[in-house]
């Protein structure tokens, strides 16, 4: 990255005669600090190869840009370098941040072409090996600072710095190194995981004409809920997401890289296929949606923690600010080892050498094997110095390589393990993540350079954990540490409540999971660790689930009705039930009457089509006369009220039927009696009967019977 400074050319050249340039405190060259877009810049764009072998020429490419409106004249262009290796990691970082240091002139050119307004000129500065005299011996190999300087015609000084690393020409026992890279969704991608009732719309069902009079809705009548319909925009976004993750895996599938992949990234078909575990690479999984396990522990949400850890690896990659409470809870959830920042467990006391990454985390209740992430090298990998200034792609690569060489040189007889990492998408502990393919490509280049160095042995995280713990004395891990931006316990409780509300209505569908699963995924995405850095994105996710719950909550109702007349002891109340749910639902209609004159004969189960109104008949029994008010309720199959109740006015006149029957019966009897009397009056008339003759006839009949029997 370009470094811009200002100073006096005469002072620079005077000191240059002694083989030195002024210290950076006098001529700062930190970052590309440009206050005006018209200011000229100088940038080192290449230092030849990533390492320089003894006996090779040093080739440095420099670009001078003139964005102004006037021609730029350059009086001289010089290259300076350290005559000996930088002595420590601190001196390297200080040099790149603009600190002082003895620089020897290596090459100067004075006959230079002018640069037209808006133009850019590239210069190739080459230093012959015989003039360079840089050795790859035991004491001389390693990183050296470079500075390119341009003195303009008006005595303005432009300067940029970078690092060249001299390759060792001796046999070394390489140090094991690993890069733990999280592959997670960005806050923007997570915030896109919102839902509305339209996502669950299904083909319009025909209204139910004859509801089933039972307490359980039939499966055939309850409809079929469908998966949310994908729009072309959704498909395009999913395709872009798939491309990003697929590209990143392809770029980072190299020796020494352990990918920690969010299992919720279903667009990534099988990242394990791109990982060859035999070469020091591997694929591990984070908790679902890379959930903020520390926040769940701090809020006491153990059940949710268990849920999100179901598909996670037994090695946890923790963000900055880890604490003992989280370590203990993760161990109970099945985690066997953890990676955490060296800033959370710094080396106790002073030591010239960087400690091994392999360590053990001790909590109040137990111990856990761990790896301490080298935060300084990780920041350089992310393209940032410890003071926050940005590094160019070249400088990031060379600083990472130089820091690793200096780490080795601190104790060459004790090659200690080193671990690098990057931020989750959305966080900024180290300064970058791999959420952009361009960033991922740059980071992959730096990692490939590092893992290809002769003093580095690419190793997976799992293999580093198998190393023996050197028992470095480190400070104790904090018992509890609530980090800024963690999702709060109240927010988690809100999510749980909203999910329960959605579930009340989702369970009415034939396929509840078609609604429950996307809702649960959206709720879990709000737990993502990366949202520590974007609370607004988290609020959008939570608000989306809340809106969905509210939309569903007012979707079922009984329509108001005019007064219903009941004149029979056994009849049915005609009701109209409206559903604005996007899917068919099975519900139960209940009529509650607190008046003995009208009694419901039972609940009625009915299937309601999505977004429609259904006629429902509820059987009742009338036991008297009078005006009665009943309450109509909508229940789920389990008997829980799921919609607002509706009062209905009933005019009961059941005794009218009895009176009418009696009147009709009396009328029929009267008609029958009248007919009998009339028939008798119209019948045949006979003359009077002689009593003497009748008695003689009876005696004659008796004699005839007697004789016959004799």
Structural overview:
With 710 residues, the chain is an alpha/beta fold. The chain has four domains: 9-170, Immunoglobulin-like, CATH 2.60.40.10; 177-205 and 220-465, TIM Barrel (Alpha-Beta Barrel), CATH 3.20.20; 489-553; 556-656, Sandwich (Immunoglobulin-like), CATH 2.60.40.1710. A five-stranded mixed sheet has the order 2-8-7-4-5. Strands 9, 10, 11, 16 and 17 form a five-stranded parallel sheet that branches. Strand 12, helix 8 and strand 13 (337-341) form a beta-alpha-beta unit. Helix 10 (393-410) packs parallel to helix 11 (437-451) and helix 13 runs antiparallel to helix 14. The protein is elongated and about 180 Å long. The model is unreliable at 1-35 and 207-239 (pLDDT under 50). Residues 202-242, 683-710 are annotated as: Disordered. Residues 214-225 have a biased composition (Low complexity).
Q: What's the Cα radius of gyration?
A: 45 Å
Distance between the termini: 154 Å
Q: What order do the strands of the largest sheet run in, or round the barrel if closed?
A: 2-8-7-4-5
**Total number of strands:** 26
Low-confidence stretches: 1-35, 207-239
CATH architecture of the largest domain: Alpha-Beta Barrel
Which oligomerization state do the chains in this entry correspond to?
single chain
Tell me the helix content.
25-40%
Please tell me the total number of domains.
4
The overall pLDDT, averaged over residues, is: 85
Fraction of residues in β-strands: 15-25%
Under CATH, the topology of the largest domain can be stated as TIM Barrel
Helix-strand category: alpha/beta
Number of helices: 17
* Largest sheet, strands/sense/barrel: 5 strands, mixed
Shape: elongated
InterPro entries: DUF6049
Region (Disordered): 202-242, 683-710
Biased composition (Low complexity): 214-225
Biased composition (Basic residues): 699-710
